[in-house]
Amino acid sequence: MSVAIEFRNVLFATPQGRVLLDGISFAVKEETTTAILGRSGSGKTTLLRCVNRMVSPTGGDVLIEGRNVAALDPIVLRRGIGYVIQETGLFPHFTVERNVGVVPELLGWSRTERARRSRELLQAAGLDPDEFGGRYPNQLSGGQRQRVGLARALAADPKILLMDEPFGALDPLTRAEMQDMLRDLLGRMKKTVLLVTHDLDEALYLADRIVLLNEGRVVAHLAQAEFLQSQQPEVQAYIRAFHRGDRNHGRNRADRQNRGAEEARKP
Amino acid sequence: MSAGFLSQYGGEIAELTVEHLWLTGAAMLFATAIAVPVGIALTRSPAWARPVIAVANILQTIPSLAMFGFLLPLPWLGERAARIAIVALIAYALLPILRNTYAGIQGIDRAVIEVALALGLTGTQRLFKVELPLAASFILAGLRTATVTCVGIATIAAAVGAGGLGELIFRGVASVDNRLVLAGAIPAAALALIADGALGLLERWFKVRAA
To answer: Which residues lie below 8 Å from residue A106, measured CB to CB, with a gap of 6+?
Structure first.
């Protein structure tokens, strides 16, 4: 499996001199999902935005399939990368169907081709195109909006999908449904995904590898199965913080999945 | 107002109403052509927003009679009263349109703009597909305020001989004939109300679409 995205000593400092990314280096293999965990302000979103040049690093390189993104036309680059954010950013004056078809529209697809693709993706994202296609975003629930946002990101069949806390604003049940839907979708569509999240369970459920950032540095880059077993203090601190309310360690999905690992870790 | 009065002045009222409409309409067209692009440009360089809006604000505070007076001695403008009237009306219309264009675009949900950028919309596509449609009701609200203001101020333009319904008002005041004052004031008020209503409807239509 070849490398899809590579960060080489990526630095980013604000004009005021605040360092947000401090020498990030890691590679993401194609058709895998990498979750980026870390506390607020650790640089997760900035790192994600370096991939589609929404942010230009002040040092180092970001490569996609071996090509430096700094040398690519940002418009072409962005149209080839799916982007999903927590607030969805759906265009309020477009119907659901047109929202999904935005990138195909920019790429000059015909109207029928766009409509066909929109319907296909709405269906894949779990929304009935006949019922929802003609609605406006303000006529949808939070979960439905997020499904449309995901369908839109996938519309032009990008190889890479960037997701910035996509389900962060949803209630736990809707979030779990969305995670199931996304896992199913990614299983079928084979995308390279960078997923920024605060949610350890989400990272364990969806990702193949997990990167933990702290103050703009990579403190851990582990396979999903190794994360809960890691003895690194930063990783353990994150796990402890995440599971504070879960005294029995076993009610949630991450623990169900990794119960073996958890048992081995207990003294 | 008697039938006799109307038969005597009806033709003149109609003529002056058309003139009034022409002055206001021309001024609104020019003002929109200036203020909307400038408002858009300010959203690209917000550092300029304060000073530019301040200048438009100062123009707005100049008393209208004084404004017409200032423009009178200017070389090209002074030659024709209608030119003075239109330029003065443009000066008054700039602020509401400019301010609302700027505020309307700046007020768009940041996530929408972020996604527009991330999906690969070019600057022009972002403007025409996202920003202008979403700010349209705001811009129209500015246009509406400007139009209503200008319909009123245009009556003063008669003071420099630019014509319009103000002519009847001025004549009525000079000859202490309230019928003439009303013959100018009522159509002017009606024009303002019609413009307000029509632009209000358009504004609501855009608001519903952008909701």
So the answer is: A79, B119, B120, B121, B125
Query: Which residues, other chains included, contact B177 with Cβ-Cβ below 8 Å and sequence gap of 6+?
Result: B171
Contact A136 B111 (CB under 8 A): no
Tens digit of each residue's pLDDT (9 = 90 or more) over B9-41: 888 889 999 999 999 999 999 999 999 999 999
What is the ipTM for the molecules in this complex?
Answer: 0.84
Question: How far is A227 from A255, CA to CA, in rounded Å?
Answer: 12
Give me the domain span that covers residue B26.
3-210
Give chain B's domain count: 1
Here the tokens at position A22 are 């401090």
Instruction: List residues bridging with A5 in a β-sheet.
Output: A28, A64
- Is B185 in contact with B134 (CB distance < 8 Å)? no
- The residue in chain B having the minimum alpha-carbon distance to the alpha carbon of residue A83 is B118
CATH number at residue B95: 1.10.3720.10
Tell me the whole-structure pTM to 2 decimals.
Answer: 0.85
Q: Please give the interface size between A and B, counted as residue pairs whose CB atoms are below 8 Å apart.
A: 62
Q: Is it the case that residue A68 has pLDDT exceeding 90?
A: yes
CA distances from A16 to A12, A13, A20 (A): 11, 8, 11
DSSP secondary structure of B67-104: HHHHHTTSHHHHH-HHHHHHHHHHHHHHHHHHHHHHHH
Convert the pLDDT of each residue in A111-154 to its tens digit.
Answer: 999 999 999 999 999 999 999 999 999 999 999 999 999 999 99
B179 burial level (CB within 10 Å; 0-12, 13-18, 19+): middle
**Whole-angstrom distance, CA of residue B101 vs CA of residue B95:** 10
Length of chain B: 211
User: Does B119 contact A79 at a Cβ distance shorter than 8 Å?
Assistant: yes
Task: Name the E strands within A86-200.
Answer: 160-164, 192-196
Distance from CA of B32 to the nearest CA of A (A): 23
Of B112, B129, B211, the CB nearest to A89: B112
| Closest chain B residue to A77, measured at CA | B120
Interchain contact, B115 vs A85, CB within 8 Å: yes
- Candidate from A79, A93, A152 with C-beta closest to B120: A79
- Main-chain dihedrals φ then ψ at residue A85, nearest 5 degrees: -125, 165
Q: How many CB atoms lie within 10 A of CB A33?
A: 22
> Which residue from B167, B181, B97 is spatially nearest to B135, judged by alpha carbons?
B97
CB contact under 8 A, A54 and B118: yes
Q: Are the Cβ atoms of A89 and B133 closer than 8 angstroms?
A: no
**Is B210 at the interface with chain A, CB within 8 A?**
yes
B106 closest CA partner among B33, B61, B53, B28: B53
